[in-house]
Amino acid sequence: MSILVGIETSCDETGIAVVKDGSQVLANVVSSQIDTHRLFGGVVPEIASRMHTEIISQLMKEALCEAGLPSNGKCPGIDGIAATFGPGLMGSLLVGLGFARAAACAWEIPFLPIHHIEGHLFSAFLGEKRPDFPYLALIVSGGHTQIIQCDTPHNYQILASTRDDAVGECFDKVARLLGLPYPGGPSIQEAAKTGSDTAYALPRGLSKKDTLDFSYSGLKTAVLYLLREKPDAPVPDVAASFQRAAVDALMLKTARAIKQSDIHRLVIAGGVAANKCLRESAERLDAELFLPPFVYCVDNGAMIAAAAHSRIEHNCSLPYDTPATASIPLSGIS
Questions:
Q1: What is the mean pLDDT of residues 250-275?
Q2: pLDDT at position 1
Q3: Among 3, 131, 155, 246, which residue's Cβ finds the most Cβ atoms within 10 Å?
Q4: CATH classification of the domain holding 203
């Protein structure tokens, strides 16, 4: 049995969780900064790191208390502590890494640095249904859109990435064009409920190219031109048409990856994995589907602890002094 604490501070959520044996979540607390950053229409890095610093100690106490562990300064009976080292906002990453290393030193327990995307991969292991290896993973979040082939634990091959905007970034930018609040994913999904997804013909990026890569800059620009030509276009119809185009592009490339790899197990993870249209569309793919519970789609500490447990189990922990890194490919840490 192992009990690990996971800390996630790569962007604008401070997440701390206590996880037993890599899958049983004893506590999962997340402090979101959305209301603060909404005033600016996006994440302000300096504000994000400051807010992580202000809340992280209190969140640790809450997580330990929720897990039924002591929080009086002595070692709370955990076997290790993990934190995200990258990619992400440098200031935010440093807060989580520094806090985790200090706690590991004070409690005399191991510290494990974890790649943010690897955390999302392991969010699928926190549900009742867990994938066997090998499997494909579609990672869709605010800053990442990738298809990853996971042959064995911690052995990854990047099959596709975005050539410009990530799908989550595209949702945020289109929401701003439509006058909808940040973050764009939930706002567009809500607006699209009463719209027609066939009202406007919008492009599916690189759909006719012989590549698995994604492109969302053209879709974003198409919405901009549509609104310039038709300023009175109903927001629900534009939102629904955009959402359908964005999801169709994801499904088209994922279906190709399934066919080319002949791997018919698929994990979809990241913040955009909470999108209802995406989940419903993925059900029609020729693959056994693994979706994290909604609470583990957004950035959280539980996924970091789950990834750390697997690295301990397979004796492939990263070096203690792995530095915070704003941009690093997952394939570079295997």
A1: 97
A2: 67
A3: 246
A4: 3.30.420.40
**Do 253 and 268 contact (CB within 8 A), yes or no?**
no
Domain tally, the chain:
2
155 contacts 334 by C-beta, under 8 angstroms = yes
Whether 89 shows a pLDDT value over 70: the answer reads yes
- Three-state SS letters, 112-176: EEEEHHHHHHHHHHHCCCCCCCCEEEEEECCCCEEEEEEEECCEEEEEEEECCCCHHHHHHHHHH
Edge-to-edge strand ranges of the sheet holding 135-140: 155-161, 145-152, 135-140, 265-269, 288-290
Reported as a pLDDT band with limits 50, 70 and 90, residue 269 is: very high
Same domain, 158 and 282: yes
Token pair 């534009």 in the structure block, residue: 238
Percent of the chain whose predicted confidence (pLDDT) is above 90: 92
| Integer angstrom CA distances of residue 232 from 196, 214, 226 | 15, 30, 10
Q: Is the pTM of this model over 0.90?
A: yes
Q: Kindly state the DSSP code that residue 14 receives in the 8-state scheme.
A: E
Regarding whether 303 and 287 lie in a shared domain, the answer is: no
Whether residue 127 lies inside any domain: the answer is: no
Task: Please indicate, yes or no, whether residues 93 and 137 belong to a single structural domain of this protein.
Answer: no
Based on the fold, state whether residues 284 and 302 are members of the same structural domain.
no
Q: Which pLDDT score, from 0 to 100, does residue 61 have?
A: 96
Q: How far apart are CA 161 and CA 50, in angstroms?
A: 31
pLDDT of residue 142: 79
For residues 106 and 236, membership in a common domain is answered with: no
Q: Which residues of 247-257 are buried (b: 16+ CB within 10 A; e: fewer)?
A: bbbbbbbbbbb
Q: Same structural domain for residues 300 and 328?
A: yes
Q: Are residues 66 and 108 in the same domain?
A: yes
